[in-house]
Amino acid sequence: MGHIHHRTPLSRGGGTRSMCVVLCESRGRAMSEATTDQETGPTTERKPIGGNEADFEAVLIDGILGFSLSIGNAILLLVGAVSHVGSFFDAALMLVISALVAALFFKAVQLRTDTISAHLPRVVYVCLHALCFLTSIIGMFLGLQYVTAVAAVLGLADTLILYGRFLAALARKALMLVVDTAFLYPGILMMIIVNVPVPYDAVILSALVLVTIVVALLFIRRSYDFGEFISAADSKARSIKVKGNVHTLFLVGFMIGAFLLFIPLPFTLQVSNVALGLAFTLAGVGSLLMRQINERDTKDALRKTMGLASLVMLLPLALVSGEIRLVLLTCYSCYVILETITILDAIIETVRFNLIAAMWLISKECSVFFCGIAVGAAIFALFPWIAQMLGPEYGLLVLCIVAAALCAWLQIKVNYQIYPFASFIEEDVDEEVSAHIERNGRRKAQWHQKVDAVCEQYHLSPREREILPILLRGRDAKYIMDTFYISQSTAKTHIYNIYRKFGIHSRQELLDFVEDIEFMDFAMPDDSAEQEDAARQ
Length: 537
Fold this sequence. Notes:
Number of strands: 2
CATH superfamily of the largest domain: MFS general substrate transporter like domains
Mean pLDDT: 78
Distance between the termini: 17 Å
Number of domains: 2
Order of helices and strands: EEHHHHHHHHHHHHHHHHHHHHHHHHH
CATH class of the largest domain: Mainly Alpha
Number of helices: 25
Radius of gyration: 27 Å
Structural class: mainly alpha
Low-confidence stretches: 1-45, 418-429, 520-537
Strand content: under 5%
């Protein structure tokens, strides 16, 4: 077969575009033009915090000492309050009340995001942060466990709201470090503090709480560029594309309720707390290791196997001895905590790359998460009555069967992206958003067909086929570099090759190039073209 040169007509203002385009510009000039539109636009792209050594202080102080220690301290205070309460039922009731209070707090913040963002300065969040943690510490010293637990979860909630935009502004590696430290820290301290005499363990924790309060006061004096204000309405419309996190969050929260099973174990409180601390530590270390391998596939596997993990690790609890039961609960807790870390990462990444208000999305997702905790804890609160009727072993078996069955059912809904309680925990979709969904649904299939067709016609490589949709969503070379773990020069080379093959020089030309394609204008395959030429001759 001889060489055939054919043209692929694309409807672009009445003209045609050759499939083989010769660029007159040099490689260096083409690569610079490939990013001209993002460098010379009306707004300058913000550099992420932690992307260079100069930001080390910000990541260490505000990220680790501020956010990570605050989240860790809240976890320690909550675990201490729950584990020191009188009975299993009181512990479950305390967790239910604390989770419901947190869910209501987040839901209220979500509904008033615009008002809070516009009228409340950061100093108000810091004052609430200090008030919650100081109240929790006072409750701990006075033995008011319910006060300690509720104030701790409110402090955790306020920490997420206070540092939400800061987390979204962090570079990807800095965000990983901060989030992983938030779970590594309470695990390590939990294993250490159980060996400290009673008066001094509370003193150590109080001192660490004071550190976070001081850091939060310094945080409001720092001037970070968090970008322009994003309204709740815009966030709601943009979040339509990323609703999958909500489904998983409820299931993860539900699975946390099984942590209560540490209480009736035939071991001392110190042993149980060490086991739970080990679970937090292993989850943090596992998250760090997971980021060094195939992170995307690992996260997807975690999300799809939560129901299976509950079946494998919860059902045998009533059939094994105390030591093995402790090991199974520790492994189960580690798995759920690792999934929680993954979900928190996903929320922050969604805020950053979908231009969603951090306060709005964090509140929306966390309200579902804490609802799941409340439901899970409420189910396990039935253990004393079931054990009284059937005996401790059979009662535990029945309870684990019910919990595992619910997890499996929820997992099926998660895998199929169907959320069974959407009418209760998700807000109604108004007419404007419904119209937006319908328009997107009609255009989505055609848009994907255009992208696939242009990739085939212009012989894009497998990596270029992955990068093209990202460019069409308005992302830059930095985002591509972080997504595929490649260098910035490699990312720009891929962009240059795509632009070269299409014969374009800017992001706007790329959008126009794909948007203006009409399927009827695409050339037929080479063999069909040859047959048509022969027939004409």
